[in-house]
Write a structure and sequence with these properties.
The protein is of the alpha+beta class. 17% of the residues lie in helices and 36% in strands. It has one domain: Beta Barrel (Elongation Factor Tu (Ef-tu), domain 3), CATH 2.40.30. The N terminus is likely disordered.
């Protein structure tokens, strides 16, 4: 993982925004975060991460990069938080990318995307021994 050396605090922050809700339709609802530029210095792709919401820590699958499947060419930042289902729109959260999982991929269908998300989450569960 390439981390911006100017960032002394490994915790990054963002505000939860309303998204397109595609992840929710695929059984993987994500927290869409403001300011994807906080990930500058990190490689685009999927990371295992720790997420602090309120006073609790959770594990998650962080995606940083363009959503090629949706025809977007700009970077977004979103996190699927394991074992979390509350709505936290407008709230600030902290997160810490910990292990790089894979590169940004393009998918030919929502089914293929859903299958990859399933693999990503399984890998994150393995990493954190969940």
């Amino acid at each position: 993982m390439s981390q911006n050396s100017e960032n002394k605090d490994p915790w990054l922050t963002g505000t939860v925004l309303r998204g397109k809700k595609l992840g929710r339709t695929l059984s993987y609802p994500t927290l869409n975060l403001s300011k994807p530029e906080v990930m500058k210095g990190y490689k685009e792709g999927v990371y295992a991460c720790v997420v602090e919401i309120g006073s609790r820590n959770y594990y998650g699958a962080l995606y940083y990069g363009p959503r090629i499947f949706l025809g977007e060419n700009y970077a977004v930042l979103e996190i699927f938080v394991l074992n979390f289902s509350k709505e936290v729109y407008g709230e600030g959260i902290r997160f810490k990318p910990q292990q790089y999982i894979r590169d940004v991929l393009s998918f030919s269908s929502t089914k293929k995307l859903q299958q990859q998300l399933q693999k990503d989450v399984a890998e994150i569960r393995r990493i954190y021994r969940l």
